[in-house]
Each structure stands twice: as C-alpha cells, then as structure tokens.
Write a structure and sequence with these properties.
The chain has 154 residues and is α+β, with helices and mostly antiparallel strands. It is 62% helix and 18% strand. The chain is built from four helices and four strands. The two termini are 28 Å apart.
Length: 154
C-alpha cells in the first residue's frame, strides 16, 4: 500500500516542480521549441477544465474534482486483494487530480507547458498531472477489461 501512496506523492511533487520550472523559465519567453513544429514548452494558464473548457464555471468544476478525488481515494483504500494495476491506475489519477487541484486552489488556474503540435488543427498544451490522469485512465480501462476477462474465464 505504501508504494501507491508514494506514487501519488511523487506525481504531485513532480507536477509542482515542473510547473514551477515553467513559471520561472517560460512565463517571460512564451514558447521554447524542443523539436520544432512537434514539441515546444509553452507557458499557458488554463482557467478551465481539459483544453480550457468550463473556464467560467471554476467553482463547479473544482467541487466536482474534489468529490471525484475523494471518491477515488475511498475506493482505492477499499480494494481487497492484489489489484496492482488497478491501484496503480487510481494512484496516477488521484496524484494528477491533486496536482492540478493544488494549482486551481492557490492560483485560480492550472499551469500547462507541454505543447504538442503534431496536428495543425489541434494544439495540445498540458502538464505532468494531465499525463498522470490520462495514463491512469488508460490503465484503469485495461484493469477493468482484464478483470472482465478473468470473470468470464471462471
């Protein structure tokens, strides 16, 4: 169990450290190409949810996010048995959720800086917490599918 708590904390710390780096290093510069036209580091203040949605509904989104984090934590501690993939998935989602919630509560926005420009029609700018939530979500889907497969095999 301790390893998952460490994972949650590690996601939060790494997220906050990289966001602080973005504030110090990128706020004045705007955007720095890492791989020109593909990956840039770009300072962005995201005042909404994913991709800036719900920017004018900050408190509703914050309340929903806090409720989701609490529910995931409750479920995390209720899991019995050796569900390592499920616990890892939940730890990543919770760590990412806490990392972004920390920004929302203290700053009123989330600092994003990883700017992927693979497609000209869609510009993605995100952070480490967003990565953790997405990877955790994908692992959660895989864990559920594997569990369904196990149940069918019984």
């Amino acid at each position: 169990m301790a390893i998952y708590i460490i994972l949650i904390l590690a996601v939060c710390v790494l997220d906050q450290m990289t966001k602080q780096w973005a504030v110090v290093s990128l706020m004045e510069q705007g955007s720095v190409p890492v791989i020109d036209g593909v990956l840039h580091f770009t300072y962005l203040e995201n005042r909404g949810a994913a991709f800036g949605m719900l920017a004018d509904h900050r408190w509703i989104f914050m309340a929903a996010s806090i409720a989701a984090i609490i529910l995931l934590l409750v479920y995390f501690f209720m899991i019995k048995g050796k569900h390592h993939l499920l616990r890892t998935a939940l730890a990543l989602v919770v760590g990412g959720g806490i990392g972004n919630m920390f920004d929302r509560c203290l700053l009123g926005y989330v600092v994003d800086f990883i700017d992927v420009r693979l497609f000209s029609f869609w510009k993605w700018v995100f952070n480490i917490a967003d990565c953790a939530v997405c990877v955790g979500g994908a692992l959660l889907v895989i864990a559920v599918l594997l569990e369904m497969k196990r149940e069918r095999a019984k």
